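Bench notes, bay 3.
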Amino acid sequence: MPVFSRFLRYFLAVAQYGSIRKASEHLRIAASAIDRQILHGEEAFGTPLFERLPSGLRLTATGELLYTHGKRWRQDFGNLRTQIEDMRGLRRGQVDIAVPDALARGFLPRLLKNLRGTHPGISICTHVLENKNILHDLIAGDVDVALLLNPTHARGLLVRAHAEFPLGFVCLPDHPLAKKTSARFSACVEYPMIMPSPPLALHRQIEILEIDSNLSVQPVTSSDNIQMIKSLVCEGIGVAILSKLDVMDELTRKELAFIPISNRELSPLTLALCVDHSRQLSGAARLVISEIEKEFLAPRS
């Protein structure tokens, strides 16, 4: 979201991350430029805004006051722009979307391509993040809308739509498992397994299955990247456990097979379309959200 000045944008990022270096990485701006703006701001206010500590930067009392008002100014300014754009009937602007790695391929790129054709005035910026960071960026106002896996309750979080995807075994089409319509989790002991590792959300669900089934799976390899896991399966190294969402493209192309896990205690993976309830969204953001909602309502094979 645009803000009043470069200084305010840099100041809010440094205050949020407690470090010029981390703010630099987040904003993709040179640390020296950020430091220079902070020093200019302190000179203009006539007082330090941060305490310089060995562990990083900490807001002074003045800095805390500016941080509180700065966030409010940023939100108010964004709301003002939204109202002006809606009054003018514009269908342009930038929409920031946070998504997990699982959506870097599949329906979302196709949807964004269609939007580009129908609404060329809208610029969509996608932020591929670890699932645990998506909610933080949404509530902080860094993105307009988020696609979140297994969302937890949080103040201000509004789920506009959701879809559930079963978990299952992923293997090559000629693998013995591919002949089954479903399989119990205990099938893990029969085949070389490729397991998801933290911070993937699937890791915790598999841990629960191991406890409930009184099994301890010893994988031949593991990875914290969905694409790597699928590549390892394609190379014939073993069988993986993923959600159906993770392999939609490969199933369409018949490159991989998906066999749902039939354990009753296993919950499906939930993909939720989320916004910050307290934030007024631009017309462009509402249009994009509406198009994503249609995708969620579309029938799935």
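Next record in the batch:
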Amino acid sequence: MKAITTMITAALNERSSAEKREIFPRFFKTGKGEYGEGDKFMGVTVPNVRAVAKLHKDITHDEIKTLLTSEWHEVRLCALLIMVEKCRKADDNERQKLFNLYLSQTRHINNWDLVDLSAWRIVGVYLLDKSREILYKLAQSSLLWDNRIAIVSTFAFIREGQLEDTYALCDIMMQHPHDLMHKACGWMLREAGKRNPQRLYDYVARHRHEMPRIMLRYAIEKFSPEERKALMKP
């Protein structure tokens, strides 16, 4: 397992950029007291991480788990993208194992890009024909990343026209203290609105006074200027 970690870390390092290595820590808020505090970046773009992941998609679950504990953000992202690749062709039994592995490691899936590039493809797709109870437990977790996993996972449901859980989870997390959740909820509401614009309009009209402004702005982004103006009124 140490060998594969070393190999993948080296492969990523070969694709690193000094410019990105300087930019990423600021972009992903790694300063003291920020949501990504202490995270370390090699400076590798997502397309390059994805290229490395495709070359190593046959590694074991134990090796993935080891990669997920890496100090390097891009190594953890690579592990998650490998899991996504595995899920694409997996049967339900294999998807369940990947689902369980994913949820056992959420403390390492600890930035918004890590969640957004993996949660709906691993958690959401697995739950398409199953109980979504676990998402409501994640929504009540004290860990920010569990909360984001819960709402972003519903993107898989939205793509199938299943909108109930998106709205229900947004109800629960409407007053979440972190703007990362306001953005995530607004994003998922916007996606749900593409399937049923009237339902989104009615939901926002009911909740616009209690909804955080950034969540509101994200949710109504695709509405007409006139609709946006009406919904943004104090």
